[in-house]
């Protein structure tokens, strides 16, 4: 059974980007980290207090909006974003990084996440600052809007901003059917058949019905479901991983040592030459880090922009926490469960097991939970992948709305639901290649927008820090549009 629970292949979130693309992604994170004066570290206590801490202390974070209010809460926006972000890549992607890049790949995954925090932060700040309300009363924001209204507002850049906004929307729309739908469903169906003997078509029909009940309800219903699903699935997986780590506590320190040694090829992967070991660790760590947390792709900002938050920086801090939770917490636990299980030679970095993908993690769980280990992973993939489908359904609908108007969203939703059954019953080798490509291409226009508007991000951040942390009395920067700025100022209160 272990060999059958392989999930999706090594191409999970694996659109093979060249060095220039990785430099652009990581470089943007480094630039935003420097421009914001290492905000993720210098204000660590503050953003943790106003994200994770505020869930338990601030009713504004979790209090649901009324039926007439089409926005969602800050916590719901985080859960929906995490629903799309925490997916099969957190299991299969990490095991692939260990298999091809060795334990050192995990270190470079952390590095990408560290700088990716500020890329995600910047996207969310811009998303809130340039968002608009649709004719249905819903907030609409994302890369397409700050490309059109932010970049496009610069002298001579209106056509460029408009074209890039359309390109981003097209890439996002196409990616939503591949990496956000069929590939995830195929992974679920394959694992359910291998672990429990459930036919693919049965899984497809059930998932199509469940998704239809949620997706057709729009963002508020999606947010309500993910608000319950994400905390449960995260705790479910974290607790299981911690049990393994505790049982193998004696190997935790050697596992960390192996990660740091492998990162700088003090021991090359598989005994290869040192330079090759470093290259593999850096390449696989960065690729898996980027596609694990999606920082720089411009995807999660579309749901963060639907939040009832008024301060752009407040939603930006949720973006930092999103990357932290996805990569620093979930991916790290996946890595530790494998590294402490005895399936990896911690001295050389060689994976001893013949299993790949989710089967490698399933084998690690089997060492503690026996035959229930692979089943545990199958259920984890079910939760992770299905939540990804729900999150991406919103991303695709927002891209569709931008291209064709809000009145046509129902067309997209119906097609999206039908494709779920297709995903459960068809071979997806080509679908993975195409969807990963479109998913990666989303990053190009998005990062152009983030880089071009980086001075605005810095100005908004300084304005917030001056007002909220230093106590300087100055006019808040809440929106690029005077009418929204005025309305938000009137609604803003000191408890937000």
Summary, kept brief:
With 496 residues, the protein is an all-alpha fold.
Q: Explain this structure to me?
A:
Helix content is 71%, strand content 1%. The protein has helices spanning 19-35, 39-42, 44-49, 54-57, 59-62, 74-85, 92-101, 104-129, 143-149, 158-196, 200-215, 218-247, 252-263, 274-293, 301-304, 312-339, 358-369, 372-404, 409-425, 429-441, 443-452, 454-469, 482-491, and strands at 132-133, 139-140. It has a two-stranded antiparallel ribbon with strand order 1-2.
Give the helix/strand layout.
Layout: H1 19-35, H2 39-42, H3 44-49, H4 54-57, H5 59-62, H6 74-85, H7 92-101, H8 104-129, E1 132-133, E2 139-140, H9 143-149, H10 158-196, H11 200-215, H12 218-247, H13 252-263, H14 274-293, H15 301-304, H16 312-339, H17 358-369, H18 372-404, H19 409-425, H20 429-441, H21 443-452, H22 454-469, H23 482-491
Antiparallel strand pairs: 1-2
Helix pairs in contact: 1-8, 1-21, 6-12, 6-16, 6-18, 7-14, 8-13, 8-14, 8-16, 9-10, 9-21, 10-11, 10-18, 10-19, 10-20, 10-21, 11-18, 11-19, 12-16, 12-18, 17-18, 18-19
């Amino acid at each position: 059974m272990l060999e059958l629970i392989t999930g999706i292949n090594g191409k999970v979130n694996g659109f093979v980007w060249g060095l220039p693309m990785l430099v652009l992604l990581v470089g943007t994170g480094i630039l935003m980290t420097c421009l914001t004066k290492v905000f993720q570290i210098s204000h660590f206590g503050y953003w943790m207090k106003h994200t994770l801490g505020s869930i338990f202390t601030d009713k504004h974070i979790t209090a649901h909006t009324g039926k007439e209010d089409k926005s969602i809460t800050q916590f719901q926006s985080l859960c929906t974003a995490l629903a799309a972000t925490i997916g099969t890549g957190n299991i299969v992607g990490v095991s692939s990084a260990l298999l091809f890049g060795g334990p050192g790949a995990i270190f470079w995954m952390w590095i990408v996440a560290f700088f990716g925090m500020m890329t995600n932060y910047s996207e969310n700040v811009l998303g809130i600052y340039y968002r608009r309300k649709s004719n249905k009363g819903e907030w609409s924001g994302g890369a397409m809007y700050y490309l059109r209204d932010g970049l496009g507002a610069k002298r001579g850049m209106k056509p460029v901003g408009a074209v890039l906004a359309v390109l981003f929307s097209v890439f996002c729309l196409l990616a939503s059917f591949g990496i956000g739908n069929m590939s995830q469903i195929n992974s679920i169906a394959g694992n359910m058949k291998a672990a429990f003997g459930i036919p693919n078509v049965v899984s497809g029909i059930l998932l199509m019905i469940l998704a239809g009940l949620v997706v057709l309800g729009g963002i508020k219903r999606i947010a309500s479901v993910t608000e319950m699903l994400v905390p449960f699935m995260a705790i479910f997986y974290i607790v299981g991983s911690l049990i393994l780590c505790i049982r193998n506590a004696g190997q935790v320190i050697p596992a960390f040592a192996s990660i740091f040694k492998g990162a700088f090829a003090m021991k090359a992967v598989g005994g290869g030459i040192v330079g090759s070991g470093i290259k593999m660790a850096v390449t696989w760590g960065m690729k898996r880090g980027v596609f694990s947390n999606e920082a720089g792709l411009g995807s999660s900002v579309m749901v963060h922009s639907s939040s009832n938050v008024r301060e752009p920086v407040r939603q930006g801090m949720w973006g930092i926490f999103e990357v932290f939770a996805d990569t620093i917490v979930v991916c790290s636990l996946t890595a530790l469960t494998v590294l402490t299980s005895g399936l990896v030679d911690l001295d050389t970095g060689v994976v001893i097991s013949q299993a790949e993908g989710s089967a490698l993690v399933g084998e690690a769980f089997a060492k503690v939970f026996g035959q229930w280990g692979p089943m545990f992973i199958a259920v984890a993939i079910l939760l992770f992948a299905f939540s990804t489908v729900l999150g991406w359904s919103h991303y695709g609908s927002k891209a569709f709305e931008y291209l064709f108007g809000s009145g046509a969203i129902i067309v997209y939703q119906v097609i999206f639901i039908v494709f779920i059954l297709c995903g459960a019953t068809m071979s997806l080798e080509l679908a993975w290649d195409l969807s990963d490509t479109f998913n990666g291409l989303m990053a190009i226009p998005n990062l152009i927008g983030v880089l071009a508007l980086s001075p605005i991000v810095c100005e908004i951040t300084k304005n917030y820090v001056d007002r909220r942390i230093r106590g300087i009395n100055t006019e808040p920067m809440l929106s690029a549009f005077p009418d929204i700025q005025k309305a938000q100022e009137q609604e803003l209160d000191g408890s937000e």
